[in-house]
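task queued by scheduler; priority normal; single chain, no ligands, no partner chains; default sampling; output format set to structure tokens
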Amino acid sequence: MYFPQNPMVPGYSSFDLPQWGQNGVGMQQATQQTGVNPIDLGNQGLTAMNIGSLAIGGLQTLGGLYNAFQAQKLANRQFRFNRDFSLANYGNSVQSYNTRLEDRVRARAHMEGKGDGYISSYLNKNSLNDDLNKKYAK
């Protein structure tokens, strides 16, 4: 049977390694087997590797902030486009409703022999106002 080698500990398969906390296995035994103390790696200070990691982390942060800013701008543009589209659709629906209402009222007034006063009072009472387009006009 093949047991894969553990890349962290040469010569040991992943099944031969001691399990932490079982049968008295702890940091001392791990240090003896690997030669590396997992807790104390020494005070190395800022090495070139650490400075490089910090620089890369900073660049990643700046890139993330830039991408977030671009996403926010795109979201604002999409919102304005959808708002303008919805307002235009609403305005067209209001205009269509008022046109149909006026046509019906004029036909009814003509059939019933009523004058223009009836038509204008009925339209003032029952037509829709396009207040949203006035409120959100550019």
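post-processing summary
- The mean pLDDT is 78.
- Residues 48-112 form the longest helix (65 residues).
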